[in-house]
Design a protein that fits this description.
Helix content: 25-40%
Number of helices: 11
Distance between the termini: 53 Å
Structural class: alpha/beta
Number of domains: 2
CATH topology of the largest domain: DHBP synthase
Bound molecules: threonylcarbamoyladenylate, magnesium ion
């Protein structure tokens, strides 16, 4: 299959309306289209068409028990696919939609089990990206979309990343440039009495709490051993894995730097993830600056791209500084720990 990569200028979408219609037609015909969102690139299919959803699993090599998020373009679309909208969900939608928040509801019958991985609940998100929303409207209103990477690879934050993973597997990729956030949406389960965070993201625990009051965090996210099963089926899989072993180094910054520098002296090629604040202290190795500690979003938005670059550079091992800050740092560490298979070294 030929994969068409199409540039869409979000500032002048009307110039591209013909291409957007073509993309929508592919979706309505049961095909796949990759597209930008504010979090990561998604791999879209008609969420109400079981056969279309099946194609997503095939293209990604994704286990079929891992449910998909259904994307909508307008708040009114929610009622069409969920049994009811609890008050707290309505309040969260008013506060954070359109945006990087996914909520779990009891599904209506029209949502096939092929989309929800056999669950009677459905995950719904209304993205803020204008290309995404135009595509959703053109595609019939309900677009199931996981991150557009091959299962196990870092999520794509540029159309080139999608092309690397999906060329030959899907007919069309819409290129809207690099995404602004770079980590997948926050997932909140609203099917119980209290909201439960199933996946951390740009919308933090405090932001959710400020709208809904008490919030729980899924124990499967916190527990380092894998004995507690996460409630979001996808969170149990090894994710974001670079080919080389990755370790996170924690402790006072001076000791972290000297430990990593010692490792760089060993034979072979060592990758280093550092920040603008520490860059000048590393003298050997394949050193990549992820962003500035004064700008958390810069760190979030570069993580997945850097993990992919280390694969291209064929490093033998990777050491990363730690980014455990209260805001989006929680989501960054969640992804980094998964990429590292939870290997951490404390050098204090
Ligand atoms: O930012 C995002 O959410 C991106 C963009 C494309 O929107 N999408 C994304 O999808 O990250 P994906 O498939 O890579 O991750 C979806 C996560 C998985 O961990 C899945 O198990 C969980 O959402 N999930 C989906 N439906 C669920 C449900 N009904 N109950 C619990 N977890 C669910
Ligand atoms: Mg994913």
């Amino acid at each position: 299959m030929q994969t068409e990569l199409i540039w869409i200028d979000r500032e002048h979408m009307s110039l591209h309306i013909h291409k957007m219609e073509q993309a929508g037609k592919i979706l309505r015909g049961g095909g796949l289209v990759a597209f930008p969102t504010e979090t990561v690139y998604g791999l879209g299919a008609d969420a109400l068409n079981e056969e279309a959803a099946r194609k997503i699993y095939e293209a990604k090599g994704r286990p079929s028990d891992n449910p998909l998020i259904v994307h909508i373009a307008d708040p009114e679309a929610l009622d069409g696919i969920v049994e009811s909208v609890p008050e707290k969900a309505a309040a969260l939608a008013a506060a954070f939609w359109p945006g990087p928040l996914t909520m779990i509801f009891h599904k209506k019958e029209c949502v096939p089990y092929g989309t929800t991985g056999g669950l009677s609940t459905v995950a719904v998100r209304m993205p803020s990206d204008e290309i995404a929303r135009e595509l959703i409207r053109q595609g019939g209103g309900y677009v199931a979309a996981p991150s557009a990477n091959v299962s196990g690879r870092p999520s794509p934050t540029t159309a080139q990343h999608v092309y690397e993973d999906m060329a030959g597997r899907i007919p069309m990729i819409l290129d809207g440039g690099p995404v602004p956030i770079g980590l997948e949406s926050t997932i909140v389960d609203l099917t119980g009495e209290r909201p439960v965070i199933l996946r951390p993201g740009y919308i933090t625990l405090d932001m959710v709490r400020s709208v809904t009051g008490e919030v729980e965090v899924d124990q499967g996210l916190i527990a380092e051993d894998s004995s507690v099963r996460p409630k979001a089926p996808g969170m149990k899989y090894r994710h974001y894995a670079p080919k080389a072993d990755l370790q996170i180094v924690e402790g006072p910054m001076e000791q972290v730097i000297s430990y990593i520098n010692e490792q760089c002296a060993a034979p072979g090629k060592t990758g280093v993830i550092c920040t603008e604040e520490t860059r000048e202290h590393y003298h050997a190795g394949d050193v990549k600056c992820i962003g500035s500690r004064r700008d958390e979003l810069s760190i979030a938005s570069h993580l997945f791209a850097i993990l992919r670059e280390f694969d291209e550079d064929q490093v033998d091992r990777i050491y990363s500084e730690s980014f455990d800050t209260p805001g989006i740092g929680q989501a960054v560490m969640n992804r980094l720990l998964k990429a590292a298979g939870h290997r951490k070294i404390d050098v204090s």
